[in-house]
Amino acid sequence: MAGFLVVAHDGGPSSRDASDAVRAVAISHGLKTTDLGASSWLVSLGPRDVDTVQVGAWTLIGRIHDRRAPPVGRVSDKYPHAYEKKLLARFWGGFIGLSFTTAGQPTAVLRDPSGALDCAVWREEGLTLIGSGFPDWLLALRKPSWRIAYDRVHAAIIDPALALGDLLMTGPVSVAPGTLQPLPEGPPVVLWRPDWITRSGQADPVDDSRAAQSLREAVDEAVAGLARPSPVAAEVSGGLDSAIVAASLVKTRAMVPLWLSAYGPDASGDERPFVERLARRLDLAVSPQPRRVGVVTRSFLETMPQGLRPGLAALDGLHDADWSDRLRHAGLTAILTGKGGDGLFVQPATGAVFSDLWRERGWRALASPALPALARWTNRSVWSLVKEARRGPTGRDRPKRSGLVTPLPLTEAPPMPAWLTGINDFGPAKRAQISAVLYGIGLHGPSLQTEAADVLHPLLTQPVVEACLRLPVIQLTLGRRDRALARRAFAERLPPEIIERRSKGEMSAFYGRMIAGGLDALRPWLLDGRLAAEGVIDRAAAESLLTPESLIWRGGYADIMNAAAFEGWVRAWEARLGPTT
């Protein structure tokens, strides 16, 4: 994963010496540094160098692409920070922007809306350090006095979306996606929010044909941009989303010498028939490989990649290790996936879709052909959908609490993430789609794959996200089934078996065996770990849940692995930061 670190000093002798010391250690680790001005310099972290582009007063750092048809006309010059809003409308990718004084000190940080490149600011003793992460060699040199904020950890393990906002430790300040952060201090300025994009679509509706075209164009733009510079690898799972990305790669004539596909050991997880049909239709050289089989081990838990945030993208370690090896062997430093499409394209299509229509039309929704179509699709009665829509849940739909975690007192409930503050006026299906955009940011986190290559998710890029947010959920489902508009948009490129497919591969049994076989490692990891010691993990409940019998009857695999990742993050950062003085 391409990352970056910017170091700036305030011009004083001691801060200049400190900057030089950091630079010397970076160079000693084989890293190349680049001056950004008299007082600032940049170093790339990851499998490839980050790009830099000068746009007006802003230096953009990361992966930067021009929009084919930038919607800058929607930004009024009367808005505060209109220039920066237009900049975020014109460029997409995974980048941050920096503005500088004439002496080279940073005055503001700007983060692009996708969240693909993390960003935090650390200021101390005349130094300003801005990075997608802070490497161990830097922490060993500077010895920061940060500490784990266990109240934030507790809230985030219940609702992982909170791990994507403020960092779970004191010290560095996170810059949120679509936000401008003044330096050296000042309140953040939000320049992009999902609900703003959604409302712009409500003000400018389009018919189904134009909606399908806009979706297809957005995906092609994202795929073509991320596939440069070629060559790249790509995954094909047999599902609709990865098939859409594969078809777009072929359409845009990207150079893809390696198509990766893995199948599970059970019939429910064996996607080879669909991969073969896709390969024949698109003329792909795909040779599906069996997934690596194993169990969770102490070594895996201790070496799970942990960055500024818990390594929730690193939970499938066996699979990541396999594909990392294949990418390195092929000499490729980027891979495109189909992740994120299910939430954006709206899958599954539940009764919440009709609830959105009811919220918009009221009793007139009873005359919509979507009502009987969705009733058939969900195997429910028409009147149960109407009853659900009339009842209408309000506010944000928070995740169910894991039995592993001690409940938070209601008085300590954390505030809603900034991106979700404007969504209560929408129906439940649109709220779920916007929440999926937020959760999708976590897919950009560190993993074994990102240590080998840039893991790129075209369906989570700004062009695709904005195209989908602008469309009502009833249009994305065409009022009849999951991801219906996406199926229509790409029907001419994909085999009918994938376009009309009703099911998807199921890997629960595979992961269940991996976790059940690893209980000897997981039980002490969680029962005797730091989260249990701090009262975050309910030790008595965990004792009961972490048994083969409980796994058979209750499942809870995702909750267990999420808790294991948070525990690993806490241990990794306490080791990096050292004992409390």
Give an overview of the whole structure:
- Residues 215-375, 457-550 form the Asparagine synthetase domain.
- InterPro entries: Asn_synthase, Rossmann-like_a/b/a_fold.
- This is Asparagine synthetase domain-containing protein.
- The protein is α+β, with helices and mostly antiparallel strands.
- It has 26 helices and 18 strands.
- A 6-stranded antiparallel β-sheet has the order 2-3-1-9-8-10, with helices on one face.
- Helix 6 packs antiparallel against helix 17.
- The chain is globular and about 75 Å long.
- The model has no long low-confidence stretch (mean pLDDT 92).
Tell me the total number of β-strands: 18
- Uncertain spans: none
State Rg.
24 Å
The name of the CATH architecture of the largest domain is: 3-Layer(aba) Sandwich
Total helices: the number is 26
Briefly, what CATH class of the largest domain?
Alpha Beta
Biggest sheet statistics: 6 strands, antiparallel
Number of domains: 3
What would the average pLDDT be, to the nearest integer? 92
Which structural class fits the helix and strand makeup? alpha+beta
Overall shape: it is: globular
N-to-C CA distance: 34 Å
CATH topology of the largest domain: Rossmann fold
Helix content: 40-55%
Side-by-side strand order of the widest sheet: 2-3-1-9-8-10
Pfam families: Asn_synthase (PF00733)
Protein name: Asparagine synthetase domain-containing protein
GO molecular function, one term: asparagine synthase (glutamine-hydrolyzing) activity
GO biological process, one term: asparagine biosynthetic process
